[in-house]
Amino acid sequence: PPQVSFTLELEFSCSILLDHAEVMLQATSDSTEATPEDNVVKLSVPIRYEPDLFLSSNTNLHRYEVHPLGTFTHSSGPEFTTMVKVQNFGCYPVQNVTLHMALPALGHRQATILSVTHVLADNATCVLQPPPEGTQVVPVPPEDLLHMER
Questions:
Q1: What is the rounded CA–CA span in Å between residue 144 and residue 148?
Q2: How wide is the angle at C-alpha 51 spanned by C-alphas 22 and 18, nearest 5°?
Q3: 117, HSE (Cβ side, Cα atoms, 13 Å)
Q4: pTM for the full model?
Q5: Strand 40-46 to 20-26 pairing
Q6: How confident is the model at residue 124 (pLDDT cuts 50, 70, 90)?
Q7: pLDDT, tens only, 89-98
Q8: Upper half-sphere CA count for residue 73 (Cβ side, 13 Å)
Q9: What Gene Ontology terms for biological process does this UniProt record contain (predicted)?
Q10: Is 130 helix (H, G, I), strand (E, B) or coil?
Q11: Which of helix, strand or coil describes residue 100?
Q12: Which phi and psi (to 5°) does residue 82 adopt?
């Protein structure tokens, strides 16, 4: 029997959010059929809206020299602020967004080169926690710390 394939492209309004779409397809012809009842099919398709999230960050300290060869001091370096922003540019609401950030924290000989002093959260809940049990934190190799952009 002959077959026809096609693609349906549906556009949905931002003002009315649906959880499913119903489509009815019917095939007709000028011929006489013995079983015309199987020429109609109804489909119910679940709808999932694609989020349009934008992640940005900026910091007030753009360059800081970290000595690579074990000459770290025990005193704290300069404090700097990094702001991370998650924006929804789509017209559909987004719920239960979780953002995981892993901060580079170890330098040569396991020296700590970055630590979080405090967190200011606006319209979000932030939780500071150590890496999960068994996670290996790989130190930044000295050759990477020697690189400086001019």
A1: 9
A2: 25
A3: 8
A4: 0.56
A5: antiparallel
A6: confident
A7: 988 888 888 8
A8: 5
A9: cell adhesion mediated by integrin; cell-cell adhesion; cell-matrix adhesion; integrin-mediated signaling pathway
A10: coil
A11: coil
A12: -115, 125
